[in-house]
Amino acid sequence: MATVRRSAPGVLLAGALAVTTVACGPSHTPPPRAVMLDAQAVVDPLAADTSVWVLQHASANTAAAFAVHLTGTGDDSGQTVTFDLSVAGSDGCTGTVAETKEGSVQLIFDGSTVWIKPDDEFWREATGVTDPAQLAAVEGKYITATASDSSLGKITSLCQLNTVLKGFASIPATDARDEIKGPVTRINGQRVLKVSDTKDSAYAYVTDTAQPKLLQLIDPDADGLTGLTYTFGYPGTPVAITPPPASEIITGGY
Fold first, then answer.
1. How many whole angstroms separate alpha carbon 130 and alpha carbon 179?
2. Of 42 and 87, which is predicted with more confidence?
3. Reported pTM
4. Pairing relation of β-strands 93-99 and 103-109?
5. Cα(107)–Cα(110) distance, integer angstroms
6. Torsion of CA 214, 216, 219, 224, to 10 degrees
7. Residues 60 and 206: beta-carbon distance below 8 Å
C-alpha cells in the first residue's frame, strides 16, 4: 500500500492549493473509532481473500459507485486542509475545500469544467484585496477553468475517484506487499475490516461484505499532506451537478 498510496491525490490537492492559493477552514471531526467485535460472533465474508484482493475490489467498487460522499483532512505546512465533497461517479462533484487562515471555496465540477466560488477571506488572502467595494464586486461569484488547467483544474483531482484509486485497484494479485488484514470490527455500526501496511503507519478500513468498499484511508505520513484522512460515505441517492448561471461567473480575469 505504501508505493501506490504515495500517488494518492493528497499531493495533487496540496499542489492545487499552493498554485491557486485556494484554502479553507471549516471545522472537522476526527475519524470514528473502530470497536472490536467478538470473532466468534460474526462470519467474515472476506476471510478467504487476500489483503491485496480486498484492496483491489474495495477500491474498484468505490470508484464505480454512482454517488460517494468524500470528506477528509490533512496538514499542509502547518495549515489544516479540509474537504467535503459529493462525488457523482465519473460525472463530477460539488462541495467545499478549505484551509485554516486562508478561507474556503465552493466547488462545482461537471467532468470537464470546474467552477469555484471563493469566500471573502480567500479573496483577501489570495489577491490582497481589502477594499470593501472590490470585495463586493466579486462576492458570490465563481471563477472557472477546464479540468486540464494547471492551476484550478488540479483541484478536481479529488472528484475523479477512478483516477484517485486506480493504483489500489491495479495492485497485482501476486504482489508480495506487506499488507495484512486485521480482525473484523465496527465503525458507527458498520462491520469493517482493517488492512494495514506493515512498512509504515498507513491503513484502510473497508466494508466487511462480499463486495467491499472503502470507508477510510488513513496515512499519517502522506507526501504533500501529512496526517491525511479520507472518509467515504455512500448516500444511495444521485448527486446533482448544476453549473452556476452565467451571471454568477467572473469573465475576463479577476
1. 51
2. 87
3. 0.78
4. antiparallel
5. 10
6. 80
7. no
